[in-house]
Every structure is written in C-alpha cells, then in structure tokens.
Amino acid sequence: MKKYIDLRSDTVTKPTEAMRKAMCSAEVGDDVFQEDPTVNALQEYAAGLLGKEAALFVSSGVMGNQICLNVLTNPADEVICERDAHIFQYESGSPAVLSGIQLMPVDGNKGVITPEQIEPFIRPTSAYYMPRSKVIEIENTHNRAGGTIHPIENIIKVKELAKKYNLFYHLDGARIWNASVASGISVKEYASHFDSVSCCLSKGLGAPVGSIIAGSKEFVKEAFRVRKAWGGGMRQVGIIAAAGLYALKNNIERLAEDHQKAKMLAETIAEIPSLEIDTASVQTNILIFKPLKISVEDAITKCKAGGLLLSEGKVGLLRAITHLDASFDDIEKTKKIIKNVFN
Ligand SMILES: Cc1ncc(COP(=O)(O)O)c(C=O)c1O
Does the global pTM surpass 0.85? Predict the structure, then answer.
C-alpha cells in the first residue's frame, strides 16, 4: 500500500507504543456507576489543568460542545457565535436537533468577534416574539480561520459583555492546547473566563478518542445526565481514557513542534506564485491556502499522486494540518511535493 504524508487533519494520528501500553494496563470499572478509576483520574486531572471544579469525559468534540449548549439553554434559546464557528458549520445542525435551539452567526475577523460586533445581535428581553439570547460561544484556536488564536483581551471583553446581558459564555477549545502553547497563556487562564469549556484529546494531543468538558460541579452533574440521555454513557471506558490521560501528561508541550512545522510549510507556500497564503494567520498547526491556477479538487488529486494528502478548507481553499505523526522529515518531503505540484 502506498504510504502518504497525511496532513488532512490532526485527527489522523495513531496511538504510540507508550500510549497503547497505558491503555493496555488501564484499571477499569463501570463508568456509568462512576466507578472507572482511570476515567475518574482523567476527569480530575483535566479539571485541575483547566482550573474548573469538575470535568467529564465525552466521546467527541461535537458531543462536548452540544452537551454544553444543551445544559446552558432551553428550547427556543439562541447561541451567538462567529459565522465560521465549528458549531455553526460542522456539527450537522445538532443544536436544532438535540436542544431545539438556534444559532445566531456573527461575521468576524480571523474567527474573532468583538463586543461591538456581538452587541447588536443580543435580543432585547422585552421582545417576547424573538428567541432568547442565552449563550455567547467562541472558538480557540479557530479551525476555519486557520488555527488562529483568539486574543485574551477580546476574550475578557466579550466575557464582560456576556455578564452585562446575563448570558453564559462557552469555549469551543478543541485546540485550546495549541492556543496555550503558542501564546504562552495557560489553559487555566483561558478557561477561567468561561462557564463551560470543551476540549479535544484526539486532535493534536494524539489520543485515539475523546474530549473533555469542564465547568462547575453543578454544570458537570447536569452534563453527566445529558450524556447518558444521548447514549454516551460508556462502561469500562478507562481503556480509552488512559490514552487521554497519557496525552494530557505527555503531548501538550510538543505541540510547539507542530507549530514550527506549519511555519516551515507556510514559508515555502508563500514563495510559490501560484499559491496564496496569509502567513500572519499561520499561528498554530493549521494552514489555509489558495491554489490560484488549478481547482482545489485538482490540487488535492495531484498532491495525492505525489504522496501528500490535503483537505479542502472553505470553498476554494486548501487545508493542511501538522501533527505528531508528520515528522520534520515528512515536512521536508511535503515542501518538495508542493513545489513539484504548484511551481
Ligand atoms: C474547533 C472544533 N470544534 C469541535 C470539533 C469536533 O470534534 P470531533 O471531530 O471530535 O467531534 C472540531 C473537529 O475538528 C473542531 O475543529
């Protein structure tokens, strides 16, 4: 079978030997009875890292975001988010299906929405004929904007706006680890501004499955109920929680390498006239770039023939994501393939 350098996503990583060993030797119990010691250890460790009272292990980032939104809202409520937010673009319309709520997308810049942009979209409480604004959501790093970091000053300003209007504040921190390593701001500092946080173990951190949601004890108690109601109560799930715990303890700091790899690729791409890239947007492990002479479909096919897998970002854009299974050597090879295809 042909071996590809796979930069379609940071979700394609496979567990390392050491991670598999941790999974193999995990102590397990029935997590629906909250008796799986490895799940409990993961939740406690993650809550500590995030500086929250409690945390809950869930199967995916989508499940994490959607449980959080469900707990924070009632049917017919509205969640304000950026137009390119994952919850708006990529979660299969599940806010409507699972919680009976709607999203209010606001145009942003590189994934960032400011209080000035948000405030006009907050519904007046006197308007009984309108949905109720209930939550403001932001994403950090921002996937569709190209892994951009949400500035902490804006996170704080939006929190103040949320407080002013008595709204909850949710963080889709699928890649909060990348934001933290690149900005030097701790995940605890980021998380401290939000009522609820969702973050992935199975992206840059390299675990095969799982996400964490965190918040107050009361919030997590309700999230536990919703997870069960949605069929997410699993039994001897310590087998996979062990991978998540291993990832949190071993794979955060190394994300800096992935960011370095992304910058190396961005430099090469910027030198190719038939490609367009905003290098200032390459802040973590995601690269979004535009083929100017061929279609995205053709570009993906040609790169594949050369041994490189890329994916489509927004319409007309290519996406590459660096991760722990793409070595520096692979990045050198990637540069060559890109030069061959696009020069
Ligand atoms: C920002 C963001 N949030 C949530 C998710 C959903 O994660 P999952 O694929 O584990 O459901 C993703 C996945 O790419 C993401 O990029």
Answer: yes
